[in-house]
Amino acid sequence: MKSLEELASTISVSAITDLIPKVILDEVEEAARARRFGRNLVRINEDLVRTKGRSIVIGRRGTLTAQDVSEGTELSSSKITYTSNTITPSKKGVAVHITQEAIEGCELNLIRDAVTEAGIALADKEDSDIMKALLDYTEDAHTFGAAGTATISGGALVYVEESESNFVKADYYDGKIVASGACTITYWQSAHGKSYCVDALSEGTWSVNGYKAIVKAVTAVKARKWRPQFIVIHPNALGGILKSNMFIDAAKYGTNEPIVNGEIGKIAGLKVLVTTQMPDGAALVIDPTRAAWFAVRRRLDMKRWDNPATDSIELYFYVEYGVKVTDKDALELIVNITDGSADL
User: Fold this and answer.
1) Domain ranges of the chain
2) Which pLDDT tens digit goes with each residue over 96-126?
3) Helices 13-35 and 108-135, packing angle to 10 deg
4) Cα 193 to chain center, whole Å?
5) Of 129, 137, 142, 181, which is closest to residue 156 (Cα–Cα)?
6) Hey, which residues does 124 pair with through a beta bridge?
7) Rounded distance between C-alpha atoms, residue 160 and residue 185, angstroms
8) Which segments within 72-207 are labelled E, that is strand?
């Protein structure tokens, strides 16, 4: 299908209005595909696209263990157990407003910019939803009436508002925040317990001994019988990886294997994905073949409205999907990786 630029030299202005809806979906999808990275971290299920159900149940398969058998003894049998996980997709969307003046003036760059941004917005929303599901965090805040230490019970912290002027330090692993005076500090807390979390400070500071913490996380996932393939980090956490002589830049192997969006290299056998969708207080090690499912109910779709009140064309883009962790054993968090981290 021809691009928006190619249309300018092959069709009349009067035909542009009718052809835009046929071209625009591909333009939006192309922009989204070039941007998104989250789908590399999950398995994708599109059964609901065909069956049109509202939700889907995906089972987590258990494992079997082989055993030694002595001569003449009976081999005991066991059953594979399944844990059901229900995913209910929800609707996401973005709207683009294009005036008739822009169309009649053949301002195709303006049109393309608008739909490209729509694709980017949908990709960013999808990646954000995937990361939030994988980290399973909730956002909250603690108000200090004076200087002191707050203890947040529950799972590890993956983000603390260290930019707050009265922030002093935080123990992300034990959920403690220290302030020097009255203030309100926002934090994000993961529901994953400490059994799925590595304290980077146990191996030294992240900036110096980040590699050791990564190896510890990889070992934890492998001990649960899965094979981690990615580590996801925020750009602010790059120091702990780039300073390691164990880091391999993607430029050194990119001609031999596919490079996914956001990939900058490898460390400890993991592909390193860098994204601002990851909170800067944690890193995530994950086996994407096991950890989570991304269920699609409605692929990218578009509704068009010729609005006479504003003499414009309005394009509405919709998708429906849901994402859920189905096996926590296939992931591990690494926390206490910021400059404000401390063992409290």
Assistant:
1) 4-61+81-134+293-325, 137-191
2) 887 777 767 655 566 777 788 888 999 999 9
3) 30
4) 19
5) 137
6) none
7) 7
8) 82-87, 90-99, 137-144, 148-151, 157-160, 167-171, 176-179, 183-190, 197-199
Distance CA 168, CA 181 (A): 9
Q: Is 276 helix (H, G, I), strand (E, B) or coil?
A: coil
Tokens of 148: 């002191």
Number of Cβ within a 10 Å radius of residue 162: 18
Task: Name the CA radius of gyration of the chain, rounded.
Answer: 24
The residues with which 273 forms a beta bridge, in sequence order, are: 232, 263
Residue 321 near residue 296, CB atoms below 8 Å: yes
Residue 129 Cα distances to 22, 53, 89, 134, 230, angstroms: 28, 21, 11, 9, 18
Give the predicted TM-score (pTM) of the model: 0.85
The pLDDT of residue 14 is 46
Q: What is the token pair recorded at 336?
A: 């206490």
Q: Indicate the residue type of 49.
A: V
What is the pairing mode between strands 282-286 and 331-335? antiparallel
CA separation for the pair 184, 241 (Å, rounded): 32
Q: How confident is the model at residue 257 (pLDDT cuts 50, 70, 90)?
A: confident
What tokens does 175 get?
């959920």
Q: Which CATH superfamily is domain 4-61+81-134+293-325 in?
A: Major capsid protein gp5 (3.30.2400.10)
Q: Return the pLDDT at 179.
A: 95
